[in-house]
């Protein structure tokens, strides 16, 4: 059977360069370079719909009238396909949006915000680039950018149960975006963020060259560790340092409501968690709920683990956080890889669950983030709880993740990720909904913005910092057709990158002066 793309080429795409559309020119160029037209998916075809939906985690960008869909999807199967995509798209004057896991909070890896000057774009899907090579003797690994965190964790554990990698808690997240944007999780306080443990990379630059760390230079290698790679090129693979974990870790959940002194415990947690032994990780998850008597309450979960056995944890917890009242019956010993499933809500499931790449929910969501530098008082916490309990349909979850430890020891400008000393925790505001009507979506978005404004007095300021992996378009965005406006971009750029933003823009000017790699929150040219 002749592939559809070849039929299209033979019927109406084999035209002169003077009359070819940009899309026709791209298809012809890509086919000539790769001889792989089967990797291309055009709209209104079964392969297009399947490819587009394969890793979309946030459905609201598929239904929004303000979203622009890709003109073509390239399902790259090798680094050479990535190089051909970049070269041919640039020649045809088309944009590229690279997607690995599809978790981009604002859908920028698979959709664009519509506007009068929106340039047609191509999705470069690299999910098939997922090989992982572990070298336990040197405690390093090469992982291709299309792999997921779950696949990486699984491969490490299969090779050596006493090695791990510091990154996020959700196993379906793609390595390419997550690692290049920061990467914080359960091992962060002991070993730093993902970006602090990247030692090499392969990147396809604007000229289609495949560059390692030496070839790309230290400025670019610095930038892609914290500021993402979407504005600089396409990450193909990372080399990372693996870290030591014990054979046994101890996990526990302790739940509290307002009647069980949840407010006092959260207030005390803020004072202590960033100073705990680095082997002890305790995060807080808070949301509105119903108490046993039917009254409104806040349900707080201390979602935690310790890098060691229960017999070591219990006296440490009694010394470090006695108010929590941790008991032996709260604790479960397991391997580190099993703790990944524990934090994912998959306790008891087979480890192969980590290899499942299927999108978790057919839903929409919105998230925002803050960094907190001073504990919020009990009275102020009660005001926050009242705000949450006063909501009608909005199910907002607050996730507090402790900083301190190794994160406070690394300089803000060591890599592009700047959120270091002075922060006691990061907080993510996360809200999911399943209705698909645009009016419902806008109602939820407005409520989230209202809550974000309410939180302003309690969080960092000048700038009010945010985590780039929790992208938030409300902070500001680049507008296509308005040139590369560095001054306008500083409004949102300094929130993500603080004092590193200017250097990031200078690096952008060196490696991509024409701003080919562009999206609504890519680094502008200085």
From TrEMBL:
The keyword Cell division does not apply. Pfam families: BBE, FAD_binding_4. One of its GO terms (molecular function) is FAD binding. InterPro entries: BBE, FAD-bd_PCMH, FAD-bd_PCMH-like_sf, FAD-bd_PCMH_sub1, FAD-bd_PCMH_sub2, Oxid_FAD_bind_N. Residues 1-20 form the signal peptide. Keywords: FAD, Flavoprotein, Glycoprotein, Signal. Its cofactor is FAD. Residues 66-245 form the FAD-binding PCMH-type domain. Belongs to the oxygen-dependent FAD-linked oxidoreductase family. This is FAD-binding PCMH-type domain-containing protein.
């Amino acid at each position: 059977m002749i592939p559809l793309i070849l039929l299209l080429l033979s019927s109406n795409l084999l035209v002169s360069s003077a009359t070819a559309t940009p899309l026709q020119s791209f298809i012809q160029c890509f086919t000539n370079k790769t001889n792989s037209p089967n990797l291309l998916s055009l709209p209104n075809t079964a392969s297009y719909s399947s490819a587009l939906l394969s890793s979309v985690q946030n459905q609201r960008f598929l239904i929004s009238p303000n979203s622009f869909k890709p003109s073509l999807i390239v399902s790259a199967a090798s680094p050479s396909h990535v190089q051909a995509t970049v070269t041919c798209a640039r020649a045809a004057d088309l944009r590229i949006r690279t997607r690995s896991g599809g978790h981009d909070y604002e859908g920028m890896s698979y959709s664009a915000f519509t506007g009068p000057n929106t340039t047609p774009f191509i999705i470069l899907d690299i999910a098939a680039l997922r090989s992982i090579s572990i070298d336990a003797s040197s405690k390093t690994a090469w992982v291709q950018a299309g792999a997921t965190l779950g696949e990486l964790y699984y491969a490490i554990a299969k090779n050596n149960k006493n090695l791990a990698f510091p990154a996020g808690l959700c196993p379906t997240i793609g390595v390419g975006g997550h690692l290049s944007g920061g990467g914080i999780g359960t091992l962060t306080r002991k070993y730093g963020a993902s970006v602090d443990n990247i030692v090499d990379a392969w990147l396809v630059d604007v000229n289609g060259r495949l560059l390692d760390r030496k070839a790309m230079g230290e400025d670019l290698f610095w930038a892609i560790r914290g500021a993402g790679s979407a504005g600089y090129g396409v990450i193909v693979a990372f080399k990372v340092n693996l870290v030591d974990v014990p054979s046994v870790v101890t996990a526990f959940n302790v739940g509290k409501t307002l009647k069980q002194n949840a407010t006092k415990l959260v207030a005390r947690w803020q004072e202590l968690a960033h100073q705990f032994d680095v082997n002890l990780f305790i995060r807080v998850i808070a949301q509105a709920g119903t108490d046993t008597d039917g009254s409104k309450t806040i349900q707080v979960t201390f979602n935690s683990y310790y890098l060691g056995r229960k017999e070591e944890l219990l006296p440490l917890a009694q010394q470090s956080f006695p108010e929590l009242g941790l008991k032996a019956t709260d604790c479960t010993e397991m391997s580190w890889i099993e703790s990944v499933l524990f934090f994912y809500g998959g306790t008891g499931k087979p480890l192969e669950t980590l290899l499942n790449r299927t999108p978790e929910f057919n839903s929409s969501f919105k998230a925002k983030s803050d960094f907190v530098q001073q504990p919020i008082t009990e009275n102020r916490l009660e005001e926050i709880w009242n705000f949450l309990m006063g909501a009608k349909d909005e199910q907002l979850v607050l996730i507090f993740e402790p900083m301190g430890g190794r994160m406070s020891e690394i300089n803000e400008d060591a890599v592009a990720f700047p959120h270091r000393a002075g922060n006691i925790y990061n907080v993510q505001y996360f809200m999911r909904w399943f209705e698909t009507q645009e009016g419902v979506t806008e109602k939820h978005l407005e409520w989230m913005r209202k809550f974000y404004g309410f939180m302003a007095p309690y969080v960092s300021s000048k700038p009010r910092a945010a985590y780039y992996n929790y992208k938030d378009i409300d902070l500001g965005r680049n507008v296509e057709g308005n040139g590369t406006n560095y001054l306008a971009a500083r409004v949102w750029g300094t929130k993500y990158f603080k004092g590193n933003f200017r250097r990031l823009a200078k690096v952008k000017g060196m490696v991509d002066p024409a701003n080919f790699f562009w999206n609504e929150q890519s680094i502008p040219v200085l």
